[in-house]
C-alpha cells in the first residue's frame, strides 16, 4: 500500500464549492495517512502565488484537475498548471486525473487524452446524488493511491451506474458455472431415466409377445 501521496488540486475559483466537497470526501484517506492535499487556498499572506504553486506542483505525485467551462477558459490554468503537470507526467513523476464537475467541452480540452472521472462519463453536477458521484471518484482514486479495487458502486436509481470491481465479476462468473453444472447434472439424470424407462417398456413388449406365442401353440 502506498502512503504519503501528495495531491495537487487545480480548479477555478468559481468552482470552489466543488473543491471543498472533494476535500471532504478525501478526509478518510488523509486521516489514514495515505495523502496530503494542497490547493491555492493554503497560500499564506506574504507568500508569492507563482512560487507556491510551482513548488506544490513540483512536489505532487497526483494532480487532480476539476474541469468546468470556467476552468478550461482560464489562461493561467492552461499556460502554467496544465503545462507543468504534463511535464511531470512525461517524466513519470506524477499521475494526472481530470474530474469533470460541470458540463464542459472536455473532448477538445488539453486534458482529453487522460482518463477522466466519474467513469460513467457524466459531470458531477448532473447526477442525482452528489455524494454518490464523489464516492465513484474516490473509489477510483483509491486504485491509484492504495491499489484498492473499487467497492460496489451505488445503484442506478442514485444516478451513478455500477462500475464492478474484479471481485464482483469473479463472483458472478462462479455462480453461473455452479448453475450450469447443476443444470447439466439434472439433464443427465433425466436422460438416464428416459433410457431406462424405454428399455423397460421394450422388455415388457417382448414378454407380452412371447406369452401370446405360447398361447397360440397350446391352442
Task: Give the key terms.
four-stranded parallel β-sheet, single chain, 7 helices, Rossmann fold, alpha/beta, disordered C terminus, 219 residues
Chain-wise SSE layout:
Blueprint: E1 5-10, H1 16-25, H2 27-31, E2 35-38, H3 49-59, E3 62-67, H4 69-73, H5 75-90, E4 95-100, H6 130-145, H7 166-218
Parallel strand pairs: 1-2, 1-3, 3-4
Helix pairs in contact: 3-5
Task: Summarize the structure in words.
The chain has helices spanning 16-25, 27-31, 49-59, 69-73, 75-90, 130-145, 166-218; strands spanning 5-10, 35-38, 62-67, 95-100. It is built from seven helices and four strands. The protein is of the alpha/beta class and 219 residues long. Mean pLDDT is 82; it is low at 152-172 and 212-219. It folds into two domains: 5-163, Rossmann fold (3-Layer(aba) Sandwich), CATH 3.40.50; 166-219. It has a four-stranded parallel sheet with strand order 2-1-3-4, sandwiched between helices. Helix content is 53%, strand content 10%.
CATH topology of the largest domain: the name is: Rossmann fold
Shape-level CATH architecture of the largest domain: 3-Layer(aba) Sandwich
> Uncertain spans, ≥5 residues at pLDDT below 50?
152-172, 212-219
Name of the CATH superfamily of the largest domain: Toll/interleukin-1 receptor homology (TIR) domain
Q: How many strand units?
A: 4
Amino acid at each position: 500500500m502506498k502512503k504519503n501521496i501528495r495531491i495537487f488540486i487545480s480548479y477555478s475559483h468559481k468552482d470552489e464549492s466543488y473543491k471543498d466537497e472533494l476535500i471532504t470526501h478525501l478526509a478518510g484517506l488523509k486521516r489514514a495517512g495515505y495523502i496530503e492535499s494542497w490547493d491555492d487556498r493554503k497560500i499564506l499572506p506574504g507568500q508569492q502565488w507563482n512560487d507556491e504553486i510551482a513548488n506544490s506542483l513540483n512536489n505532487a505525485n497526483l494532480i487532480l484537475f476539476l474541469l468546468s467551462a470556467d476552468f478550461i477558459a482560464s489562461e493561467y490554468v492552461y499556460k502554467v498548471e496544465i503545462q507543468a503537470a504534463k511535464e511531470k507526467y512525461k517524466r513519470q513523476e506524477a499521475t494526472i486525473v481530470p474530474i469533470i464537475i460541470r458540463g464542459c467541452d472536455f473532448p477538445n480540452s488539453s486534458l482529453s487524452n487522460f482518463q477522466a472521472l466519474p467513469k460513467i462519463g457524466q459531470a458531477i453536477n448532473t447526477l442525482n446524488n452528489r455524494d454518490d458521484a464523489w464516492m465513484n471518484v474516490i473509489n477510483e482514486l483509491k486504485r491509484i493511491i492504495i491499489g484498492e479495487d473499487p467497492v460496489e458502486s451505488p445503484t442506478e436509481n442514485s444516478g451513478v451506474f455500477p462500475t464492478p470491481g474484479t471481485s464482483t465479476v469473479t463472483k458472478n462468473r462462479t455462480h453461473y458455472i455452479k448453475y450450469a453444472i447443476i443444470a447439466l447434472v439434472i439433464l443427465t439424470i433425466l436422460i438416464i431415466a428416459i433410457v431406462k424407462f424405454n428399455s423397460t417398456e421394450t422388455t415388457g413388449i417382448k414378454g407380452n409377445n412371447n406369452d401370446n406365442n405360447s398361447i397360440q401353440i397350446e391352442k
